[in-house]
């Protein structure tokens, strides 16, 4: 069985397209292409039913200095999953030539989440001390709270953490 895209491409059952038309391989055995697909972060987010919206915005007054200096674009991102909604500001370096994608945002939030349980001292020792250390540590804790609100801290959180680590 195949899926025919709007532009005439044939995709196997394990493959699909995300909302911006990017090919997303899903886990499982493929009857069309013959590959055994590994689970990807993009495919897992599709399977979870994550809905995503990103709107470029003016840089907020409370944005980090590296964003205010013009080295990044600012977005307001909304994530919808399991009847829950979360909105946050997301910053993307100007060297990235595409709009934020769901996997970009989730991978970033999961990285922050991995640092959220550090004490401030552990965080500063690991990441380096600066005038921004306290604010950055706080942002990591808030981002973990966002992820936990959407997905909980169980199996989904663990799978997201593993997949984001290889994204």
Please characterize this protein's 3D structure:
With 167 residues, this protein is α+β, with helices and mostly antiparallel strands. It has 6 helices and 9 strands, in the order ββββββαβαββαααα. The strands form 4 sheets. A 3-stranded antiparallel beta sheet has the order 7-8-9. Strand 1 (2-4) and strand 2 (10-12) form a beta hairpin. The longest helix is centred in the C-terminal third of the chain and has 19 residues, at 133-151.
**Would you tell me the overall average pLDDT?**
85
Number of domains: 2
The separation of the N and C termini measures 29 Å
Shape label: globular
| Helical/strand content category | alpha+beta
Radius of gyration: 18 Å
Number of helices: 6
Helix content: 40-55%
Strand order of the largest sheet: 7-8-9
SSE inventory with pairings:
Elements: E1 2-4, E2 10-12, E3 15-17, E4 23-25, E5 28-29, E6 36-37, H1 41-48, E7 51-57, H2 65-71, E8 72-81, E9 84-93, H3 102-116, H4 120-127, H5 133-151, H6 155-165
Antiparallel strand pairs: 1-2, 3-4, 5-6, 7-8, 8-9
Helix pairs in contact: 3-5, 3-6
Q: What's a concise summary of this model?
A:
This protein is α+β, with helices and mostly antiparallel strands and 167 residues long.
Defining key terms:
167 residues; alpha+beta; 2 domains; 3-stranded antiparallel β-sheet; 26% strand
